[in-house]
Write a structure and sequence with these properties.
heterodimer, A: alpha+beta, Alpha-Beta Plaits, about 50% helix, B: alpha+beta, 13 helices, 4 strands
Chain lengths: ~200, ~220
């Protein structure tokens, strides 16, 4: 079995509310290893490179909104002036680009077996109001898609964690140079699995 | 009351006045050393400084070369001597015979011994360097970090709560005391260290939840 890598990004809501340490502790506690870390202001180009600039991504994001609106009997056209999923996805990305430049971002590269799934589990549902207690989003936020859309802003869900193994590698590449990643052994590793 | 501190700065204790004069908002350099990273204490250390209201301005993980570690310290012969004298003092405090344990009681030799092993300690793995900002940030960070030597640090401080290391233990193992959180000692040291680890970096401010409650 191969170790996987996840890119975590604590977004401005987590930074400005003073939640960095508490969030980092959760990943350390479970035994994942921090192999890269930085806290810095970002630029538009990096955010654009981070979120896929593909119709598939825009569609995925747009459809999340449309599904939620349908469930609640709301009209997407009122907020977005369109009900095309790709167009809605593009608008959300614009909001993200603005939002992620509101404070520096706390960015971590994590390593471990099943790292991707473990991180997604610890973060909880993307939509904080639906995230279970015990997860980062469930414990520290209750934002909803309706409210975010109504206020023309991206959902404030505190943290980003890579979706898939490929995304993890790709995103770490966007934020870290190879010489900014480190290999070392933690104190607990030998008690967790054979080295 | 810290009378000397008061005489030096009569505004001490009145943060509002000081902030208006821009004397009080300081930056301090904090370093998380390899052992703390390997023990999973990164979040714990950050939480302590976040909770007190200090604002993180910059952070990075790196594995510095021996020369980079060496130049973090002043490194002058008087500084090396001073380190040796500190070692002698801490041996005295714990009732141990420095000459018996270390083979010498010459401050210059002891200082160089400590300096070499400090570099070895820093090289055990990656470190995390950070800049934190806030009113009296230097004093606050030092207080929360606690005494340099964990055995002598009060409970409630980072060094007190998370380590049992001491001068006698470390010297018996031919290493320095693992002071797993570094915090700048004074304004000059902070300025020098921040410039050293974050050269040409402009630290842009952002708003934290405590700002509107205490700083406006």
């Amino acid at each position: 079995m191969k170790k996987q890598h996840t890119l975590l990004m604590i977004k401005p809501d987590g930074v400005q509310r003073g939640l960095i340490g508490k969030i980092v502790s959760r990943f350390e506690q479970v035994g994942l290893k921090i192999i890269g870390l930085k806290f810095e202001w970002t630029i538009k180009e990096k955010i654009v490179a981070h979120y896929p600039e593909t119709d598939a991504w825009f569609k995925k994001v747009g459809e999340r909104t449309l599904t939620n609106y349908k469930k609640k009997g709301l009209d997407a056209k009122k907020v977005f002036k369109t009900d095309d999923a790709v167009q809605i996805g593009r608008t959300v990305k614009k909001w993200l680009i603005n939002y992620l430049q509101q404070s520096p971002l706390f960015i971590i590269a994590l390593e471990g077996y099943e790292c991707i799934e473990v991180c997604r589990k610890l973060c909880g549902n993307t939509i904080p109001v639906l995230a279970a207690p015990g997860t980062i989003r469930g414990d520290f936020s209750y934002d909803t898609i309706d409210l975010a859309n109504e206020q023309s802003r991206p959902i404030r869900n505190i943290i980003h964690a890579s979706d898939t193994v490929d995304d993890g590698e790709k995103e770490i590449n966007v934020w870290f140079k190879p010489e900014e990643l480190f290999n070392y052994e933690t104190g607990e590793e030998k008690f967790m699995y054979k080295l | 009351m810290d009378l000397h501190g008061y005489l030096r700065n009569p505004f001490r204790g009145n943060p509002l006045l000081k902030i208006r004069e821009n004397q009080s908002v300081e930056k301090t350099l904090i370093i998380i050393k390899p052992d703390a990273i390997k023990r999973g204490l990164v979040g714990t250390v950050i939480t302590v400084f976040e909770n007190v209201g200090l604002k993180l301005l910059a952070a990075k993980m790196l594995k510095p070369s021996k020369d980079v570690i060496k130049n973090h310290y002043p490194g002058s012969s008087s500084w090396i001597r001073e380190m040796g004298e500190k070692t002698i003092a801490s041996f005295k405090q714990s009732g141990a015979d420095v000459k018996k344990k270390m083979g010498t009681d010459d401050p210059a030799k002891l200082g160089q011994f400590v300096y070499d092993r400090l570099i070895k300690y820093w090289s055990e793995g990656p470190i995390i360097v950070m800049v934190w900002q806030g009113p009296d940030a230097i004093q606050i960070a030092r207080k929360l970090r606690g005494h340099t030597i964990p055995l002598l640090a009060q409970s409630g401080t980072l060094h007190g709560n998370y380590s049992f290391d001491s001068s006698t233990l470390s010297s018996s193992l031919d290493r320095v005391v693992k002071t797993f959180v570094h915090a700048s000692g004074d304004v000059e040291e902070a300025e020098r260290e921040i410039k050293y680890w974050f050269p040409k970096t402009e630290f842009k401010n952002y708003e934290r939840e405590v700002d509107s409650l205490y700083l406006k």
